[in-house]
Amino acid sequence: MYSFTKPNRDSITLLAGLGVQGDVHAGVTVKHRSRVAQDPTQPNLRQVHFIHQELFGELREAGFEVAPGDLGENVTTSGIDLLALPVGTLLRLGEEAVVEVTGLRNPCLQIDIFRDGLLKQVVGRADDGTVVRKAGIMGIVVTGGTVRPGDEIHAELPAEPHRPLERV
Questions:
Q1: To the nearest 5 percent, what fractions of the chain are helix, strand and coil?
Q2: What is d(CA 168, CA 163) in angstroms, rounded to the nearest whole number?
Q3: CB-based contact 55:69 (threshold 8 Å)
Q4: Which domains are seen in the chain, by residue range?
């Protein structure tokens, strides 16, 4: 059964080329409803969803109580500026797993169903009018492995020139 939020677990297993074992979004081709409606044969660039824990503090200040897993992320990070990473960054999680960053999560209306008004907190506009997406990043699993709470995450930047993240 599909649920927007995800439970916290003792571990998750990342499967190369697929995503998180048992996750509704795992697969070689797109699984997100809006993407499937557009073209179900597109490659799945959204196999793993990361959110930075620092976002929860920002949301709390705006009056929203949000906890890890509430926004559908698979992995919650701390101390890494996820939104500033370039496309192609490799995130090494735990002892084995490697995820390649593909882009920004494009938050959907389900966020407002979860908490009314929350979508405006995670998507906004910069002074120059560009859209700012703060609801995390997405990636594909390059090397599988088990990931546990507290595992270290190391970011390995790709060769320059770096491409900024765009929505995927």
A1: 15, 30, 55
A2: 14
A3: no
A4: 12-156 (2.40.33.20)
